[in-house]
Amino acid sequence: MDLRARVTTAVKQAMKDKAQQRLSTLRLINAAIKDRDIAARADGNENGVDEAEVLAILGKMVKQRRESARTYEEGGRLDLAERELGEIEVIEEFLPKALSDDEVAKAVETAVAKVGAESIRDMGRVMGELKANYTGQMDFGAVGPMVKQRLSAAAG
């Protein structure tokens, strides 16, 4: 079952269960996907966004909520931070399992080998390869420095 169908099913179940917090988060997910669909159609893509882009949307939503939760905690608003963390749990249900550090390192090595990267100038191609295959499974902000270090070591 694709992600859209899973989200729709979860919305229906949350309505039946009268789980307001969960339902609210699921509706936010649907709205974000529909917004991106509308933008894609305006750009000429009649089918809207694909599964990989939906994963990217969900990953971005999680990242935003982590930042908000941290800000709320620093401001002493633990109630709002807890709500953000609750939303993260719901969103993460639809993301693939995150890779371990060892799996990320192996994926970086595989991507470097696949694109034939030899220097830091090849970093964009390596990151593109990783994003194509591991969207939603790794934090690309954290992986970027790993790729850079790996390519610097290869060149030096």
Walk me through the topology:
Blueprint lengths: L2 H15 L2 H23 L8 H24 L3 H15 L8 H15 L7 H12 L5 H16 L1
Helix pairs in contact: 1-2, 2-3, 2-4, 3-4, 5-6, 5-7, 6-7
Q: How many beta-strand elements?
A: 0
The gross shape turns out to be globular
* Low-confidence spans: none
Measured on Cα atoms, how large is the radius of gyration?
18 Å
- How many domains comprise the coordinates? 2
Helix content: over 70%
- Report the sheet with the most strands, covering strand number, pairing sense and barrel closure: none
Give the integer mean of the pLDDT values: 89
* Class inferred from helices and paired strands: mainly alpha
Along the chain, the helix and strand elements come as HHHHHHH
What do these coordinates show?
This protein is an all-alpha fold and 156 residues long. The chain folds into two domains: 3-92, Orthogonal Bundle (Hypothetical Protein Yqey, Chain: A, domain1), CATH 1.10.1510.10; 101-155, Arc Repressor Mutant, subunit A, CATH 1.10.10.410. The protein is 77% helix and 0% strand. It has helices at 3-17, 20-42, 51-74, 78-92, 101-115, 123-134, 140-155. α2 (20-42) crosses α4 (78-92). It is globular, with a radius of gyration of 18 Å. 18% of the residues are buried. The mean pLDDT is 89.
